Amino acid sequence: MRRGRRYALLAGLVVWAIVGAVACGGEKKEPTRPGPAVAERTPETTTGAYTPAPKDQQVFTIAMTAQPVYLDPHKSQFAQDIAIERLLYRPLFWLDEKGNAIAAVAKEIPTQQNGGISADGKTVRVTIKDNQKWSDGSPLTAKDFEYSFKRAVHPKLASPYAEELFNIVGAKAYYESKSSDPAELARLRDEIAVKAIDDKTLEVKLINPQPTFVFKWGLWIAYPVKQSAVERGGAPIENTEWAIQPGRQIGNGPFVLKEYREKDRIVLEANPNYSLEPKPKLSRVEVRIIEDEETAFNAFQTGEVMYAAVPPSKVPLVDSDPNLKRLNIRGPDPTVFWLQFQHEVPVLKNQKVRLAIAKAIDRQAFVKAVLAGVGEPTTLFMHTSLPGQNPSDGDVLTYDPARAKQLLAEAGYPNGQGFPRLNFLSSSTTVAKAIAEFIQKQLKDNLNIDINLEIVDTRTRSARYSASQFELALGGWHEDYHDPENWLPTLMATGATNNQLKYSNPRFDELVRQAQFELNNEKRLQLYAQANKILLEDAAVAPIYQRVRNAVVASKVKNLVPHSQDSGWAGNMLIERIEIARE
User: Fold this and answer.
1) In CATH, what number does 332-547 get?
2) Composition of the chain by helix, strand, coil, percent to 5
């Protein structure tokens, strides 16, 4: 990626700035992260002078090709969920256009200088801004954040992102409790060191100083949810249905839920009680659920939607049509896709089998044939823009069909003989099926092994993936914040709540554990690099490609600013800026 070196350099400097602020107290800068990927092709129509359309025409329609699984932020892990939740909620901290950590509901980012972080770095106090409100107009207070942080690690909720809060004293013990005794659970809950000192002050005690807490507490796992909405009518704390019910769903973001129709559309309207600045210029956002990418693109061409992804089959059309080309957003996206192995499947416990499969896939041919060249082949687990890795370590997974056959024979399956037929879980979208079919053919041609394709709708695929109910699957990770911590321990540490692969390596675990709380940035990145090398040599996954953002947006959509952390569509992180022009 063209911007990779700059990203890596900035990430190293940024983490050092955070460590200085948290551990030393001498750094005056606020924690920052490298800025968002700048699109290589930016629609000329999204900028320049324009006349805004009337308020009743400030409607942005978007095609999204996956049905959300949850709209409860404490249960979510998929991009289609997060894209909607970012419009409905605001956490303590956020990221600005350049990727800098900024205060959202918090009055300021805690530092030792402003008294927000204790001398040992283990106590954090966050002050809530004045006059914060829920979408129903009621006050939003520190007590709501205390409730939300504790709910997020509730053992019955079983959040896949709970681990992001495990450095809070008591959080992991509560989450991992198997007790059915209400008194015991209440005791564990009360021992979680999150406390509202008063309506405007939240105090959190950490097990270890953690430079990245501002990024973790800006994730959906730390979004505030209203207790009376969650538990209305005596509903259990772990219930998630409240979040898809207009009127019951109460948030504090720039929009509120007005309509939710499964596999059809999600409609949001501007929140009249939104307490932060800037206020949204849009009066309404309509997300159409169109699971087939080509159908979604056709909906853009007919004017049914204003934004849609460009499927590979339409890349030549967009590149050759001047009118479409000027509406095209194309550029880097910090997302990597891998062929994922379920490590509890007996045959996939064999490292030589995994390595053989990884080396049997021609990534260059894949990007050309399946993605129409809009993607970047990779043998790395993490995005190339990240520090904490040595690019040459991915060479162990380089395409080499002769060596792949040899490895499979060494594993006891010469020419694929006796190899069990594995199932490949895939969603039913056109692109997903094309990916699955390409990999199926590669493994047959290069290893003489057969795999079954299990084609299901996107919601079923997401649910089965979350429950680790697959043998092979294509999985991807769009980073939540630009640091190896968000990739290595979050996804691959033994027992990690996002480790649906059930991968486990004790040496890897020890290295990432040390790295997570190492305050010397150089040592920290060295530890991550060692762990990353183990992951690649283990062939824990088979990296395939890095995604490139590729979409089209209507000419009347103005001030759409792509951001590296966008989910669902470009401009998602900075939705308040978007405005519709008069035609």
Assistant:
1) 3.10.105.10
2) 35, 20, 45
